[in-house]
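Sample intake sheet
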Amino acid sequence: MRLSRSDHPSVNTTHARRWWALVALMLPVLLVSIDNTVLAFALPEISEALQPSGTELLWIVDVYPLVLAGLLVSMGSLGDRIGRRRLLLIGGTGFTLVSVLAAFMPNAALLIAARALMGFFGAMLMPSTLSLIRNIFTDATERRTAIAIWAAGFSGGAALGPVVGGFLLEHFYWGSIFLMAIPVMLPLLVFGPVVIPESRDPHPGPVDPVSILLVLGTMTPLVYGIKQLAAAGLSPVPVAAIALSLALGTAFVRRQLGREEPMLDVRLFQRPVFSGAIGANLLSVFSLVGFLYFVSQHLQLVSGHSPMTAGLMLVPGMVVTIIAGLLVVKLAQRFQPAVIVTGGLLLNVVGYALIALTGGQGSDLGLLIAFMILGAGIGGAETISNDLILSAVPAEKAGSASAISETAYETGAVLGTAVLGSILNLAYRTNLEVPEEVPAELADSAGETLGNATRIAQELGGGAGASLLESAQHAFDSGVLITSLIGAALMAAAAVLAWLTLREQKS
C-alpha cells in the first residue's frame, strides 16, 4: 500500500521537531499513569469519605481501564481515519473536563460514572500517542529510543503520582488528585498542534458500531464474572457472564475475519512475534497493577504510613523501572528480544516470590525490594514488547497496532485488579474475625474493605476497636501470600510464552 506524505513525517519533520513532538506526547502518558497510581493511594481516603462497598471500591479502580480497553481498538481505527493528532486533542480536552467533574463527585456511584467517562476520552489518548510515535520515528534505533522514553513516561508518572498525590492527600481532600489534569494537559492542548505532525491512514477501514459493542460486551461480563467468582464463589451468574464474554469475543473475531475491511485485523495474531509481544505486555502490566493495588493499602492501613511517605517508599521501584526501560535500548543491540523479554518476566517471578516470603509477615522492606525487582523486569519487558508490536506492522496500520498494544496494557490493568484484588478481598473477608461487641451493621461494613474496618475501629476505640483493627490487618495480609503465588505462576507462564514466540526474532 502506498502511503501519503502525512504518513511519513520524517520526510517533512526536522530532527528537533520530532523530539519536541515526543515531549508533547509524553504529557497524556504521564497523566494517565499518574491518574492510575494516585487513585490507588487515594483508596483509603475515598473509602472513608464515600464509604463504598468492596465491590464499588474495585469498580472505582476498574471501570476506567475497562471502558478504555473496550474502546481502544475502535478509537485506534478512528484516529487512522480522522487523524491521530486530532483525536489526541479531542481526547485531551474531554479527559481534562471530566477529571474536574470527578473531583467533586459526592458518592461512589457518581465517581464510578465519572471514571467511566474518563475511560471514554482516555481511549482517544493512548493509541494516538503510540501510533504517532510509530509514524514520526521511522528510523529503527530512534523509534526504539522513543518507545523506551514513552514506556518510561508510564513509570515516571507512576513514580510521580504517589509523591504529588501524597502531598495533595495530606493537605487537601481526595478530589484534588483529579485536578492535576489541568496543569498537565493544558500545555498539550496549546503546543500540540504546533509541534506534533498530523498523520492518518490514507485508506482506513470503516468504523464498525457492531464490532465496538462486541468488544465492550466481551470485556464487561469477563471482569464482572471474575469479580463475582471471588465475591460469592462458583455460581451460575458469574459462570454465565464469563461464557457470554467468550461467546461475544468469538463473534467479534468471526466478524473481523468475514469483513473486507475489518475494524481490527485479527490476522495479525497469526504472527508469533506479534502475539507473543502482546502476551508479554498484558501480563507485565497485570503484575504491576496487581502489586500496586495491595501495596498501597498495606503501607497506609497496615504499616500506618501517611500517603506521602507511602508514595516516597515506592519511588525507588519506579526509578528502577525507568532505568531498566532505557538500558534495554542498548542491550537490544547485543541480545535477541526473546532473551530480554523472557529475562524481564523471570525477574517478575523473583519479585512475586519475594513478596510471598515477606509480605505475609508485613515486611515493608521486603515489599519495597520486591517492587524494585518487579520494576526492573517490567521496564525491560515492556519496552521491547511494545517495539516488537509496532515494528511487526506497516506504518499505515500503526493506529490499529497501537490500539491492540494499549488494549493489552489496559486489559492487564483490569485483570490485575480484578483477579488479584478480588482474591485479596475474598481472603480478607474469609479471615476477618469481628469482635462480638461490634454491632452487626458495622461488622458487615468492616467485612467489605480494610479501609472500612480501619475507620470503624477508630470510631469504636477501646479493646473492641483494637481487636478489630488487628484482625483486619492480619486478614488483609493473609491474602498477600495467595495473590503473590498466583502472580509468580502467571509470570513464569508468560516467560515460557515469550521465549517460544519471540526466539526467532532478530534484534
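Comment: Residues 208-262 form one domain. The radius of gyration is 22 Å.
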